[in-house]
């Protein structure tokens, strides 16, 4: 009892919050795998998984069992330490991104004044994990995927940051809870109304930063076999899979907090509004993946350097000018 009393209450709160986050991520990965497969099936006019459980609802559990049961092996001449460090780096930093996420008025693991900065900083570690996976596997397709990852992520982080800065300047804070509180309950009171261009830029960059189609060039099955994770099997591949879906939830949550009013909505504010908006954005991710074809790598970079960065810069300058004047 004395030992428990000596533990700071904040530490206990964070530990409980991290356990809840791990459960939250695990459940959502299973749900999103099923939603992705069924969504792809309906978009492509086929039933999708239909055999394991009613309407294939147990298919994600079957997939998880298959991945856990597969043998793990290290490729010849690969760097074993870096090779197995990469999937770990892909998953665990993502869990930290949920710490400052404002799910509701009082549903936040830890209030962080620089929460937005924390998310942007730790999100960069995912790029490092992808780069290590491709380089350490001693595979030419993996190396090409790693090179594409660096080029793509570094490029698209710039307009993403500029879009986020527009909201930070407008609200005068990097605390996500403060940004949400600065918006009203009705859609015309959300930041998407005052910053529509920043919202569109953020959304496009979110697809690129999470390596989702049509910007999934680092893995591009039609060109690079599986890109950076070509040599991974079992839970090595499964951890990259989990990280991708967890990152989708993170960017959807950040987008909801920045542009869509967070937990606020018509009627009674609460966690349900936050989750409804997050699920709507996740549905958009799935719809776009199975609707639009993958772009070429030169097109991907041209979209960023010729369009997104100039537009994001002009939008930021316009925001600063209007704030100074009004």
TrEMBL record:
Reaction catalysed by this enzyme: a quinone + NADH + 5 H(+)(in) = a quinol + NAD(+) + 4 H(+)(out)
Keywords recorded for this protein, A-Z: Cell membrane, Membrane, NAD, Quinone, Translocase, Transmembrane, Transmembrane helix, Ubiquinone
GO CC, one annotated term: plasma membrane
Chief place where the protein resides: membrane
Residue intervals passing through the bilayer: 12-35, 81-100, 112-133, 154-170, 190-208, 245-265, 271-292, 304-323
Assembly description: NDH-1 is composed of 14 different subunits. Subunits NuoA, H, J, K, L, M, N constitute the membrane sector of the complex.
Function: NDH-1 shuttles electrons from NADH, via FMN and iron-sulfur (Fe-S) centers, to quinones in the respiratory chain. The immediate electron acceptor for the enzyme in this species is believed to be ubiquinone. Couples the redox reaction to proton translocation (for every two electrons transferred, four hydrogen ions are translocated across the cytoplasmic membrane), and thus conserves the redox energy in a proton gradient. This subunit may bind ubiquinone.
Similarity remark: Belongs to the complex I subunit 1 family.
Record's protein name: NADH-quinone oxidoreductase subunit H
Gene name in the database record: nuoH
